[in-house]
Amino acid sequence: xxxxxxxxxxxxxxxxxxxxxxxxxxxxxxxxxxxxxxxxxxxxxxxxxxxxxxxxxxxxxxxxxxxxxxxxxxxxxxxxxxxxxxxxxxxxxxxxxxxxxxxxxxxxxxxxxxxxxxxxxxxxxxxxxxxxxxxxxxxxxxxxxxxxxxxxxxxxxxxxxxxxxxxxxxxxxxxxxxxxxxxxxxxxxxxxxxxxxxxxxxxxxxxxxxxxxxxxxxxxxxxxxxxxxxxxxxxxxxxxxxxxxxxxxxxxxxxxxxxxxxxxxxxxxxxxxxxxxxxxx
Length: 281
Ligand SMILES: NC(=O)C1=CN([C@@H]2O[C@H](COP(=O)(O)OP(=O)(O)OC[C@H]3O[C@@H](n4cnc5c(N)ncnc54)[C@H](O)[C@@H]3O)[C@@H](O)[C@H]2O)C=CC1
Ligand SMILES: O=C(O)C1=N[C@H](C(=O)O)C[C@H](O)C1
Hints:
Elements: E1 5-10, H1 15-26, E2 31-37, H2 49-52, E3 62-63, E4 72-75, H3 79-91, E5 96-98, H4 105-114, E6 119-122, H5 128-144, E7 152-159, H6 169-182, E8 189-192, E9 205-212, E10 219-225, E11 230-236, H7 241-256, E12 266-268, H8 270-273
Parallel strand pairs: 1-2, 1-4, 2-3, 4-5, 5-6, 6-12, 7-9, 8-9
Antiparallel strand pairs: 7-10, 10-11
Helix pairs in contact: 1-7, 3-4, 5-6
Bound molecules: 1,4-dihydronicotinamide adenine dinucleotide and the ligand O=C(O)C1=N[C@H](C(=O)O)C[C@H](O)C1.
């Protein structure tokens, strides 16, 4: 316990929170779960977070109250819950990993403000495969930007029926990065679904299509359509552990950096954590 990172999970009773608790408990050399925060009205309040996650008890109960001695917070909650979490971390100088998607522009600005005093990793996908695919999508876009006849780029995402936001934060991030690589004038248009008499597709748009089916833990397909051929870049999770493991890697990176020292205040992302911040775009 003495050398482990004391971790509080915000949204601990949720689908993702449970997997973070379970993987952190499995990695007992690095982590001790000391806090399992969730909404005061959650039916699991009072139960041990390990039991809720389907593992042995971890000696931290699901609770709306924050414990006093925390090294770092991982958040997988809801946009309506994030402001309180950020305020708590700033007030207690706790480093923070934010994975919640669907944040408003003002919430994104609050994160940037908070990052002036605490280190924050914020990313719509903590998955290694997704972040690698984002770099690949940027490279494919740059390579095809001036192809004869043009390239049409569309982003399809599939998620479980319980997902609250659409399109996914990951799809929007793919679109943002691809838009930068398109470097278009006039600026790129982000088109969400199509219906009715839309007219012909323009060259400077990116289309988004959100599919909600069953228990899909997350899948993104980037279609690069040309005249005569196409590329489809597909990245799919088999379960939620890719995201939970990524969030724990981000927490370790914030606490220990690459050289064992804690990261200074700042707003970081998974490219930073994975050493891909300067990867060729
Ligand atoms: N960045 C990434 O890699 C990933 C991000 N996500 C995002 O994480 C978020 C959570 O996803 P899920 O676990 O599937 O959702 P979920 O709905 O299963 O879990 C959310 C949890 O937050 C809790 N919560 C609500 N209000 C709260 C409050 N005021 N204080 C504390 N907890 C509160 C809920 O009771 C629930 O237990 C979503 O925004 C999702 O898009 C999900 C997977 C991967
Ligand atoms: O809600 C989810 O499940 C997921 N949400 C994230 C997003 O919106 O991009 C990441 C992942 O795709 C799973």
